[in-house]
Design a protein that fits this description.
By secondary structure, this protein is of the alpha/beta class. The chain contains 10 helices and 10 strands. Bound molecules: adenosine-5'-triphosphate, pantoate (PAF) and beta-alanine.
């Protein structure tokens, strides 16, 4: 089943996307996968453009994955606009949009899931306990359905990138994982589908996340190695904005995702902040190498 909203096909079934990819593989073409939850913006666009540079064909999945949302999270209100997404995928050089329904992706009596321990319990995992299990399960399914040569993930969701790399290593997926840089608004706010939830006042306050991280990065670049000092400096900037409610600011090891006292190895400096009801994340890798 495939419907023509624009010149690129929009495919809704697993059989149809498999058929398309198998035909490409018969022709010896390489395939990139960009997993998304839709409501696409320039962050997603950069992933698709990179995938189109590296591969002959690019599958963009557009699926708001119900099993990665907790019961009190925003599954129902998550923004959706398939028509706009299709146009963006086409402009960015994608070959097909894969937009299954939840019923197509999940059998009603599904009993198999991927669970990962330790690294999914840190950072966002503390307040989103079911999140990474749901992400790993859907990404593993997408990997099996699309069988891409390469898959593209944004560094904005840095813990997700570390988790997916680990899953690929642990379960021997023969897929190269490419981490892509964070795309930002002119005022520094990381682009995110959830930015649309912000009120005018919250949107005006939101660049404080990036300003706070830049303060931390400057300290690290000027030789500061104490996590405590850097975290305190980041928190001070966040606290200067009355609308912020900080969930965490942490500096973690890239392998264990466990907090480290000093920046003596490559680290991820990550934060999650609530502005009203909207939860935003941002980060930087130090050194910026992943
Ligand atoms: N600003 C960005 N720069 C680079 N990559 C991004 C950016 N925003 C999202 N991505 C990446 O796009 C992929 C799909 O993400 P998703 O569809 O959840 O978008 P999102 O804007 O992050 O949404 P949300 O608001 O739910 O966090 C992920 O790999 C994510 O890291
Ligand atoms: C990787 C992903 C598409 C899985 O649903 C999602 O977590 C996201 O959009 O980052
Ligand atoms: N980009 C992460 C998807 C989520 O927050 O559910």
């Amino acid at each position: 089943m495939s419907e023509q909203l624009s010149p690129i096909p929009v495919v809704h079934t697993i059989d149809a996307i498999r058929e398309l990819v198998q035909e490409w593989k018969r022709q010896g073409l390489s395939v990139g996968l960009v997993p998304t939850m839709g409501y696409l913006h320039e962050g997603h666009q950069s992933l698709i453009e990179r995938a189109a540079q590296d591969n002959d064909r690019v599958v963009v999945s557009d699926f708001v994955n119900p099993i990665q949302f907790g019961p009190s999270e925003d599954l129902e209100s998550y923004p959706r606009d398939l028509q706009r997404d299709t146009a963006l995928v086409e402009r960015a050089g994608g070959s097909v949009l894969f937009n299954p329904t939840p019923a197509e992706m999940y059998f009603p009596n599904r009993t198999t899931a991927i669970t990962m321990s330790t690294i999914t319990e840190e950072l966002c995992g503390k307040t989103r306990p079911v999140h990474f299990g749901g992400v790993c399960t859907v990404v593993a399914k997408l990997f099996n359905i699309v069988t891409p040569d390469r898959a593209y993930f944004g560094k904005k969701d840095a813990q997700q990138l570390l988790v997916i790399r680990r899953m690929v290593r642990d379960l021997n997926f023969n897929i190269e994982i490419i981490g892509c840089p964070i795309i930002r608004e002119a005022d520094g706010l990381a682009k995110s589908s959830r930015n649309t939830y912000l009120t005018e006042a919250e949107r005006a306050a939101a660049p404080v996340l990036h300003r706070a991280l830049e303060r931390g990065r400057m300290l690290a670049e000027s030789g500061e190695r104490s996590s405590e000092v850097i975290i305190a400096a980041i928190r001070e900037v966040l606290d200067s904005e009355p609308l912020t409610d900080t969930e965490y600011v942490e500096i973690v090891d890239l392998e264990t995702v466990h907090p480290v006292p000093t920046l003596d190895q490559p680290v991820l400096v990550a934060l999650a902040v609530r502005l009203g009801t909207t939860r935003l994340i941002d980060n930087f890798f130090f050194p910026d190498e992943l």
